[in-house]
Amino acid sequence: MNRKSIQPILRFSLAIGLVALISACATQAPAPTENRSLAEQVRAPAAEERSGLQVYPLRNPAVTELTEAALAAEQAGDLDQATLLLERALRIQPRDPELLQHMAEIRLERGEWEQAESFAGRSFDVGPRVGEICQRNWRTMALARERLSRYDEAADARERLQACQIEPPTRL
């Protein structure tokens, strides 16, 4: 083979290599969970698995109002206002597991991992230990522990999450 007959083959090979290099640099769309906020990563799966036994405590109307205002502030991106409203609600009902969990999720959004884990743990301790709130507790603790590089404890939290799902008793 002479030099002139090799040049088209080299150009073709170079073009193929360039296309392969460019396609290797292309990015994939992130997984749907990556687009979610940390609080949504905690709440959404628990809401989807709501079929099991659920326990809801009675709630003071003032606490309900403060909680709704905190959720609106959170959705508007005002995490400071959401925190203040939840702190006020917690002064009225300091042992409300949903309030404690909501505060844990706000702390998670703010990157306050230890506080998030602490609030979620307190919510689990006073909560029903079944259903959606239990799942949110363990998901929050797992995410917080992952962010704190405590991967074994995060894996433990994910295992305990499975025990939250209990089928309701059959009715006659």
Automatic annotation (TrEMBL):
InterPro entries: TPR-like_helical_dom_sf (IPR011990), TPR_rpt (IPR019734)
Gene3D superfamilies cross-referenced by the UniProt entry: Tetratricopeptide repeat domain
Entries under Pfam families matching the protein: TPR_19 (PF14559)
Protein name: Uncharacterized protein
Organism: Wenzhouxiangella marina
